[in-house]
Each structure stands twice: as C-alpha cells, then as structure tokens.
Amino acid sequence: MAAQPAAPTAAARSPAYAKSILKVLFISLLFDLLSFTLILPLFPRLLDFYKAQPNNVVLESIFNTLNAFKASFHRPISSRFDVVLLGGALGSLFSFLQAVSSPIIGSLSDRYGRRTALLYSMIGNILSVLLWVAATDFPTFLASRVVGGLSEGNVQLAIAIATDVSTAETRGATLALVGVAFSIAFTFGPMMGAYLASKTLALTISEKNPFVTAALFSLGLLVVETAFLYWKLPETRPLRDAAEKEEEKKKKMTVAEEKTTAEKARSDAAGITLLNATHLLFLLIFSGMEFSLPFMTFDLFNYTSTDSGKLLGFIGLLASVLQGSFVRRAKPALVVKTGLTSAAISFFLLSRVNSQRELYVAAAFLAVTSACVVTGLTALVSLKIGEQERGRVLGGFRSAGQIGRATGPLLFCTLYWWAGRETAYVVGGTGMVGVATLVWRGLGK
Fold first, then answer.
1. Which of 267, 335, 350, 395 could form a disulfide linkage to 102, CB 3.0–4.6 angstroms apart?
2. Is 73 helix (H, G, I), strand (E, B) or coil?
C-alpha cells in the first residue's frame, strides 16, 4: 500500500483533524454497510434459486440437517420457513467467522497500522462480492460468504480509528456517528437491494445468476469505497515513539504511582471483561429475538416481506434519530443502561402482542435498544484501552458479540418452537433483566 504521512502526535490531533477523519469514516461506512445490507432482502429468493437447481449436493445436505432439526420439535414447522432457517444458518456461519477473525484483524492493525489493515480488509470484501457475481451455483455463493466473514473488518477498524482521533470527552458522540451510519444503511440498503433484484442487465451471466445486478452494484460500492479510503484516509494509529515515551515515564514513577497505575490496569481489565460478557450475553438474546421476529409476525399477522420491511424501516429510522440526539449527548453508561432496560421491556411486550399497534409499540423499544446498547458498550470499552492495544482489544470485544450472534438464533428459536412464543419472549426478557442488572451493578453511576 502507498506510504502515508506518520500519524500525528496527540498534541497535533486538533478538532479539525478529528472532524476530517470522521467525515471520511462516515462516508466509507455508508458505502460499506449499504453494500453489506443490499443482499439481506434477497436471501429468500437467492436460496430458493439455488434450491431449485438439480444435483445440488451441498445444499441438499444442509436441508437434510435442517429438516432433522425441525423434526425434533413436537410443534410442526412449516416448510415455508426452510429458506429462512437456511438464511439463519448462513448468518450464524458469517458471525462465527467474524468471531475468529476480528481479534486477528485488530492485532494486525495495532502492528501495521489501521489504514493498511482496512485496505487489505477491503480487498477481501471485494473478493467476496466478486464470488457473488460469479455465483451461478450454491458452493460458489457459500464461498463468497466465507470469504466475507473472514475479511470483514471495516466496522471494528472504523471504531478503532474513531477512538484514535477522539478524546474521552467526545468518545460517545464520535461513536454515535458509527451507529447513525448503521441505522441509515440498514434502513435504505435492503430497499436498494430489493429494487436492484428486479432489474436485469444484458449480460450472459444474468441468465445463470439473476441477482448479478445487485451483486455488481455492491461490488461498485466497495471499489469506490476502497479508492476513497486509499486517497483520503491517513494513518491514525498512535506513534510507536509515543509508546516509548510512555514507557520512559513509567520507569520514572514512584512506588506509590506504580501501585496506582497497576490498580487502574487491573480495574480496566476487569471492566473490559464485564463489557465483553455483556456484549456476548446481550447479542445472544437480542439476535435470537431478531431472527424469530419474522416467524412471530407471520404466525400472528400473516406478514409478507414488504410488511416486515416496513417494520424494520420504522425501527431503523427511529434508531438513527436517537443516535443523532440522545446517544451523542448522554454518558455511555447511561446509554447502555437505557438500551438494556428498553430491551427487557420490548421482550415482555412481544410475549403479549395481539395487535399490530402493540407490535409497533414493542418495536419502538427495540429501536431504543438498537440505538443504544452496542454503541454505548463500544464507547465504554474504548475508554479502558491503552493506545498500543486498541485494535486487539476492540477486536476481542467484537468477537465476543459475534459469538452471541452466531449462537443466539439457534438457541432462541429452539425455545420458540419447543415452548411457544410467550414462554420464549418471557425467558428472553428475564435474561435481559439479568444482563441489565449485571450492568447497573457493575458500571455504577
């Protein structure tokens, strides 16, 4: 990669410098997340397309496993949900691969620089979408998801960069911008994907891959993003000589100062452990609820994909408003506590929903949760990290959350089909109360 000017010292990191970096990050995240979310509404049709192909040994094997899973429940599960379950399995695979790769990508960014790690991550993302463009069969499409899961480091590296250029006082507001990018992309990306899926290009491959238009648009977004980052993003990783000066400072400490520093380090390590555990447990429960929501809305109100899109759009728009207002201004600890409390309320409401009005009330609380929890937890973790280990620790934090995302849908849907909707959501709500209690006691005021 092209050499860049050395990262500025802490003194040189003016508000104007931070603002310019955050502008680059926000634009690049929008491109990246729009590319990522384009495919989400297409999963059912994509998988139906591959399912209809003859002699599809890999896909047939996966469906046999899913059918054995379905048959283990005393409640019948409609074959209508086969593709939804397969989509969930692919999502869990993607999250598991993220859990494996995130700490590695973070550590590499500490050693070689954020910009370098981000650009190589972009190369992996481009390769993933190129495989999707060429995915005329399911194994190729599966390979694209595997490559994407292993290489997707954009979000955690963007957070590390935002942490590099912000101060403790501005950290919450800075990371809220990442949340806003998420909300915008997850609101409009799926709509763009659905629109592009209806368009056909005059290409030979379109006959074998009817989703090539969306895939090529996704590829275009990533190529533009990569070029934008290459030319506009400088290196932000703290200078190594700054770390050496810090070591010199430590050597000159008195015994009392060394004791205080050691105690703070132990306290920060314990705090990071608590936040990682909270991230894992929260996403374990919350991602299970997210995955079960289409089943519930179909059972209760016979929701179509369009109806589900409207519900998710409502959640996304409300979350983006909250991130641009409350989340940016409030202290991160309060943001997390608010989000977890709202999560518990939403679960208990979902256990009793009998009308669409009640569903949207519960969705409003889900929007508060989506806006607050992960952004607040990330801000809290970033405040406890030393400059030279920022990428590694943030990678570990993301890995903990991805473990929750990988296992949550399986566990929650098992409970949903075994014990029923009311029991599943009451158990989920009780779990959220437990997570909220852990955080209220562990974080203090």
1. 395
2. coil
User: How many helices (DSSP H) and strands (DSSP E) are in the chain?
Assistant: 17, 0
Say which residue, 240 or 215, is predicted with more confidence.
215
Q: CATH number for the domain including 210?
A: 1.20.1250.20
Indicate the DSSP class of residue 327.
Answer: H
| Buried-state track 96-125, b at ≥16 Cβ within 10 A, e below 16 | bbbbebbbbbbbbbbeebbbbbbbbbbebb
The span from the CA of 300 to the CA of 293, in Å, is 11
Residue 239, Cβ density class (10 Å: 0-12 exposed, 13-18 middle, ≥19 buried): middle
Distance CA 361, CA 356 (A): 9
Q: Is residue 435 part of a domain?
A: yes
The pLDDT score that the predictor gives to residue 100 is 94
Provide the whole-model pTM: 0.83
To the nearest whole number, what is the mean pLDDT of the chain?
84
Domain assignment of residue 258, yes or no: no
* 8 Å CB contact between 415 and 284: no
Domain with 274 in it = 13-54+65-238+265-443
